[in-house]
């Protein structure tokens, strides 16, 4: 793959605020006459903090060619967002920015805020991460788009601006754009608002579009839509795009070139295929190995990268990755390696002295010493012979929706959870997946609630909520069932030491002091933390360690079932791998069962045995994880799976994906028949007679029949462990919702 | 049950990392540093501490006390024998000021601390239980806010509480009455703060572990609104001192023979022209007291507020140091 965009190596020496003339000339010399729209040279950003000066970005260089996409990948704290803000001139005044940023030859650094305003939103535009807070709530979206037009085109007539706004909204795929101009941001969903943000960003045909984690806050199906919109926006405007993300899957399909950042410095740059198929820097290797794959059934342990990114308060004396690198030798600690070209590919650079030894045939599992796949003693026992730890029977949670201040009139019901039944056996990991609003969290809360007046029955370890829900049963139930929360920081009281955190459930269980002490030491070792850290406060630990503390707390009372609410979604990729491996190990060694709620289907596939797909409070497909993921029957499951970006550029480019139309409908106006009919790609392609059936009847959960071949071999074959709720699983898909990016299109200028 | 004794190398590496670098600064250290960076606040703290020390040891520097009458010096301006002069009754003003300052600080501190404590427990309880408990407790709170505090103080300290007056010194009575009427505003603020804390996962985690509500309120909610409580204590102390002065000034607070700054100021107002020292000395002390607290409050707010500008000053200080070393 040829690449025009060069992400070359520049001077790595840090530039003092008082650059001398020689250095200035040196930098200017690097701006060889190219046709790059944006070229960044030796960008350095320093912040001051309580602890001293943080050198957040240390010498970033790249050239961005028109119409190309550069993906900047890195973990949190690697300086990728700071780089983008520095380019936009949006950093606070306390930040010290040095180096050079040139937009079509024009130096941007050092311009006054007022001068920068001429470029921002005009030649260079940005899409931010959080669509919920980046639009002003008191103005209509039309006003906000027109504002962007007015600022840079004062002479444009009112009609022209309005016409342009309608055109823009239509371009980003907002239905009935003319009417929606007058809508306020709160009338749009998150995905729609992000579309509006993109419309505002491309309003003035920018030459450079910077997207800072544009889809991180969105659901997978919406993420697929927004990525598609970004793609069209780029095609329409011909802008160069800088795509900043932590998700290696998202950029695999989008980017032409990748820059991997670590500790404020690019450590590997090159064309997308070079980075994914031929990584030459151990950090990149580790990152790629740390991501679970949604399209691979074979189970291998994930690659954990030990340790933490370095502290940017102190200038690293050697390679910044050396403390975490399993290949580090003394030479690595002696001076920071520059970005050097990798032999064989002119545009591929890696900052590693051993890059030559790291060819494509190196097994990352060997390098990073990934633990072996743990095996549970329950794995050998057939599922039906294991005892049930949790059973839900027809759980419902309906919220009445009322209107009127004085006399409350019931205008409808929100069916958050509607008739849920499943069971979890010993030693098994059961996952619930679905978009936000599908009722996953409500299901968890219903289980944790464990109250007699609930609609439906919850049986935990043989204790039913219907029979006796007095205090004693409840406390017995609490010992069977514990929870790990999504946000490890929020789940630990900041004023408790780790000892106090872990002692709380034990004290509550009535243990005496010496027993608590021993148990805590045991727990610390169990989750891979040093026992002598018990006197530290949670804020003295990293995110991954905090989540380990949360897991230790859940395990304190020896529960049989642990409820995991998005346990790794707040963690960085490399840390996430360690926590997933730990969960896997604990399940095997302690015979635990998990109930996992996650939106990341790759993680679900990696860790679960069985999976349920929820849509609007109902299970639409349930079954063994490999069966459901490899052979999804329900159109929603198919759409969900196809929306997940895979960290493999080849697969991403050729893959056919289903882009669902619209958002999750509000549970209020859920259709009468099949909930999914409004967005269903099969439904859209069905003849009217069959559509009638979907709209009026509710499809029941039915088991997948064994295939003809299997039945002919073994007539009495048991039903497979996969159930789905759809009348026409084999129906044709609607063409409009199918999108393929083939190789040719991808390389179109 | 546990057979995993291997310590994760990741943890070990991270530990080394945390130990070697000063990444982690204790929160209290940060708050202390920021507070010390605010010169006004430090000055306030020094003045307040000096006044407190003065109120305890000041009595040793004079032979007079607040009850002895000097028949040879009645209504005399400051002199060698009486540092600050004497009152019309011939009592040494210095001794009275020392005593009055002590009573005022005592009332301020006790009322400030205890009322915030009551408010914290009451507000957290309301927020934790919600529903009916919240409604009833909120009603009680609103009712107390609407009660005319001034009248109750007047009745309790003069006419009505005759029995009480016999058993309790007037300053203790005033403390009790001030306490009853001083915690409601803070309690409402704390209620709303704790309600947002209740949404935090660690409270949910405790609930799911089956920790009893009383323990959750005391161990999880109260400490987490600590920074607000500290601010509210200094504010409450100022408020209580001012209330005492005001009540004593109009004659319904501290009663003679007990002395307080308010009593001294109130007694001297009618003769500002003839005995100016009787008026200005206690007024200055009161101003120093409340002023120092206000100065501290400002610094405390800066120290607790993570978005305050005090980091910027750290930067400047560092730069200057760097330049000096060059």
UniProtKB/TrEMBL annotation, chain A:
InterPro entries: AAA+_ATPase, ABC_transp_ATP-bind, ABC_transporter-like_ATP-bd, ABC_transporter-like_CS, Oligopep_ABC_C, P-loop_NTPase. Residues 40-288, 390-641 form the ABC transporter domain. It comes from the Bacteria. Pfam families: ABC_tran, oligo_HPY. One of its GO terms (biological process) is transmembrane transport. Signal peptide: none annotated. PROSITE patterns: ABC_TRANSPORTER_1 (PS00211), ABC_TRANSPORTER_2 (PS50893). One of its GO terms (molecular function) is ATP hydrolysis activity. SUPFAM superfamilies: P-loop containing nucleoside triphosphate hydrolases. The keyword ATP-binding applies. Keywords: ATP-binding, Nucleotide-binding, Transport. Belongs to the ABC transporter superfamily. This is Peptide ABC transporter ATP-binding protein. The lineage of its organism: Bacteria, Bacillati, Actinomycetota, Actinomycetes, Micrococcales.
Automatic annotation (TrEMBL), chain B:
GO terms for biological process: peptide transport; protein transport; transmembrane transport. It comes from the Bacteria. The chain crosses the membrane at residues 41-61, 103-124, 136-156, 168-190, 237-257, 277-296. SUPFAM superfamilies: MetI-like. Residues 105-297 form the ABC transmembrane type-1 domain. One of its GO terms (cellular component) is plasma membrane. Residues 304-326 are annotated as: Disordered. It is a multi-pass membrane protein. It is found in: Cell inner membrane; Cell membrane. Keywords: Cell inner membrane, Cell membrane, Membrane, Peptide transport, Protein transport, Transmembrane, Transmembrane helix, Transport. PROSITE patterns: ABC_TM1 (PS50928). InterPro entries: BP-dependent_transpt_permease, MetI-like, MetI-like_sf, OppC_N. Belongs to the binding-protein-dependent transport system permease family. OppBC subfamily. This is Oligopeptide transport system permease protein OppC. It comes from Pseudarthrobacter enclensis.
């Amino acid at each position: 793959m040829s690449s025009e965009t060069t992400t070359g190596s520049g001077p790595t020496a840090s530039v003092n605020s008082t650059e001398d003339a020689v250095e200035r000339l040196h930098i200017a010399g690097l701006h060889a006459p190219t046709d790059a729209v944006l070229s960044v040279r030796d960008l350095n950003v320093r912040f001051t903090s309580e602890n001293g000066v943080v050198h957040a970005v240390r010498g970033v260089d790249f050239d961005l060619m028109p119409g190309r996409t550069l993906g900047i990948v890195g973990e949190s704290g690697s300086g990728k967002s700071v780089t983008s803000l520095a380019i936009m001139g949006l950093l606070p005044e306390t930040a010290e920015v040095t180096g050079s940023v040139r937009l079509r030859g024009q130096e941007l650094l050092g311009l006054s805020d007022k001068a920068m305003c001429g470029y921002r939103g005009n030649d260079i535009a940005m899409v931010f991460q959080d669509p919920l807070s980046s639009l002003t709530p008191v103005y209509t979206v039309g006003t906000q788009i027109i504002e962007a037009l007015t600022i840079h085109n004062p002479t444009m007539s009112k009609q022209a601006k309005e016409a342009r706004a309608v055109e823009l909204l239509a371009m980003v795929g907002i239905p009935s754009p003319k009417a929606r101009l007058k809508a306020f941001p709160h009338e749009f969903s998150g995905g729609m608002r992000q579309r509006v943000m993109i419309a505002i960003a491309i309003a003035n045909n920018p030459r450079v579009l910077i997207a800072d984690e544009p889809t991180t806050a969105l659901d997978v199906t919406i993420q697929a839509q927004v990525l598609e919109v970004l793609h069209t926006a780029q095609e329409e405007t011909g802008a160069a795009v800088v795509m900043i993300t932590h998700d290696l899957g998202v950029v695999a399909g989008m980017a032409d070139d990748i820059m991997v950042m670590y500790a404020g410095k690019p450590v590997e740059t090159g064309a997308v295929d070079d980075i994914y198929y031929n990584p030459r820097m151990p950090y990149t290797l580790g990152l790629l190995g740390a991501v679970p794959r949604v399209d691979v059934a074979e189970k291998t342990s994930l690659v954990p990268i030990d340790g933490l990114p370095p502290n940017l308060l102190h200038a690293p004396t050697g390679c910044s990755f050396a403390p975490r690198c399993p290949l580090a030798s003394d030479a690595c600690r002696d001076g920071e390696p520059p970005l050097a070209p990798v032999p064989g590919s002119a545009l591929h650079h890696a900052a590693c002295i051993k890059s030559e030894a790291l060819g494509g045939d190196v097994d990352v599992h060997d390098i990073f010493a990934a633990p072996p796949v743990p095996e549970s003693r329950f794995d050998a026992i057939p599922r039906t012979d294991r005892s049930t730890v949790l059973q839900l029977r027809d759980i419902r949670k309906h919220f009445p929706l009322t209107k009127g201040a004085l006399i409350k009139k019931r205008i409808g019901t929100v069916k958050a959870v509607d008739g849920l039944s499943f069971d979890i056996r010993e030693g098994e990991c059961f996952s619930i997946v679905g978009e936000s609003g599908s009722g996953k969290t409500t299901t968890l809360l219903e289980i944790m609630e464990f109250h007699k007046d609930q609609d439906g029955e919850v049986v935990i370890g043989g204790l039913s909520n219907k029979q006796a829900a007095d205090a004693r049963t409840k406390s017995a139930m609490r010992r069977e069932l514990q929870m790990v929360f999504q946000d490890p920081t929020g789940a630990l009281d900041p004023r408790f030491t780790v000892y106090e955190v872990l002692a709380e459930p034990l004290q509550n269980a009535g243990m005496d002091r010496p027993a608590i002490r021993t148990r805590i030491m045991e727990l610390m070792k169990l989750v891979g933390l040093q026992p002598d850290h018990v006197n530290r406060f949670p804020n003295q630990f990293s995110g991954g360690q905090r989540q380990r503390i949360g897991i230790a707390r859940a395990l304190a009372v020896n529960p049989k079932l642990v409820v995991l609410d998005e346990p790794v979604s707040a963690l960085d990729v490399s840390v996430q791998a360690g926590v997933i491996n730990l969960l896997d190990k604990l399940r095997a060694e302690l015979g635990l069962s998990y109930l996992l709620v996650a939106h990341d289907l790759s993680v679900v596939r990696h860790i679960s045995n069985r999976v349920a797909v929820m849509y609007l409070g109902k299970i639409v497909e349930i079954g063994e994880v490999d069966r459901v993921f490899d052979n999804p029957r329900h159109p929603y499951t198919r759409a969900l799976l196809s929306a997940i970006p895979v960290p493999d550029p080849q697969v991403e480019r050729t893959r056919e994906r289903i882009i669902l139309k619209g958002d999750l409908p509000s549970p209020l106006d859920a259709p009468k028949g099949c909930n999914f009919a409004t967005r269903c790609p099969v439904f859209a392609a069905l003849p009217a007679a069959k559509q009638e059936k979907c709209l009026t009847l509710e499809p029941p959960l039915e088991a997948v029949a064994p295939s003809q071949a299997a039945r002919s071999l073994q007539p009495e074959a048991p039903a497979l462990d996969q159930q789905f709720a759809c009348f026409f699983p084999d129906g044709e898909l609607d063409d409009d919702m199918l999108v393929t990016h083939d190789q040719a299109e991808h390389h179109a200028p | 049950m546990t057979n995993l004794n291997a310590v994760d190398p990741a943890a070990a590496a991270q530990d080394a990392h945390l130990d070697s670098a000063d990444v982690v600064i204790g929160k209290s250290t940060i708050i202390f540093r920021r507070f010390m960076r605010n010169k006004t606040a430090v000055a306030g703290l020094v003045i307040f501490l000096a006044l407190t020390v003065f109120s305890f040891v000041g009595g040793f520097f004079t032979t007079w006390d607040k009850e002895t009458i000097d028949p040879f010096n009645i209504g005399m301006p400051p002199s060698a024998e009486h540092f600050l002069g004497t009152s019309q009754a011939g009592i040494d003003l210095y001794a009275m000021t020392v005593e009055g300052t002590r009573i005022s600080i005592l009332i301020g501190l006790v009322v400030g601390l205890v009322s915030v404590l009551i408010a914290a427990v009451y507000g957290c309880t309301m927020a934790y239980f919600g529903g009916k408990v919240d409604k009833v407790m909120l009603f009680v709170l609103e009712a107390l806010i609407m009660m005319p505090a001034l009248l109750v103080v007047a009745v309790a300290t003069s006419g009505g509480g005759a029995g009480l007056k016999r058993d309790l010194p007037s300053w203790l009575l005033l403390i009790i009455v001030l306490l009853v009427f001083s915690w409601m505003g803070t309690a409402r603020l704390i209620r709303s703060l704790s309600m947002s804390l209740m949404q935090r996962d660690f409270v949910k985690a405790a609930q799911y572990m089956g920790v009893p509500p009383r323990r959750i309120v005391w161990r999880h909610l109260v400490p987490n609104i600590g920074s607000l409580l500290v601010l509210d204590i200094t504010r409450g102390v100022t408020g209580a001192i001012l209330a005492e002065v005001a009540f004593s000034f109009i004659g319904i607070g501290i009663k003679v023979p007990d002395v307080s700054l308010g009593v001294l100021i109130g007694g001297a107002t009618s003769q500002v022209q003839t005995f100016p020292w009787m008026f200005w000395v206690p007024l200055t002390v009161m101003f120093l007291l409340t002023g120092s607290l206000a100065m501290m409050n400002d610094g405390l707010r800066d120290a607790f507020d993570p978005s305050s500008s005090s980091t910027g000053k750290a930067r400047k200080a560092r730069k200057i140091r760097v330049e000096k070393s060059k």
